[in-house]
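Let's practice the habit of predicting before peeking. Look at the sequence and jot down your guess about where helices and strands might fall. Then scroll down.
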Amino acid sequence: MLRNLATSLINAKEERIVTTLPKAKELRPFVERAITLSRQAQVLPEGAEGRALHLRRQAAGFFHAGNMTAATLGSKRGQARPERTAGVAALRRLFSELGERYKDRPGGYTRILKLGHREGDRAELAIIELVDNPREVEAREADKKRKAAATKKKGSGSKKSKAESKTSADADASSTADES
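Done guessing? Here is the structure:
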């Protein structure tokens, strides 16, 4: 069950899944150990391919194996290879994308958010998600831009009002001088 949940979390497009709270709490250390293995593989020095392969094989133990029939069907001409399983896709994503993303983070790769109780059996639901996901990073950058624009607008707005009041005062003075 944990293998399936971990595979679903890593392969999820939004990098989050909804499950019960006890399952989420059990899943957290399971997934974090796998991410730690991929993170360790990212920070290895050059020439340590053997160690990287060893870490990849250790992480493969956290997911279901690939198609065992791929080797026998691959040699026949004209037949399509069967699809890779979700476990193989999760392992590929873990080492290519997530290991790179978390290589500077010492831990805490997941977050659990409580949702409340499910109708029917009143089980407590939770969302478990990977932190620093693209949606979260994009929202953080948009918030920074919005704050910067508000600060810039506020700062330039006060200058404009002083400048406008000064030019309007000069214009009033010059118009009264023209009239006399």
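How did you do? The chain has two domains: 2-131, 133-180.
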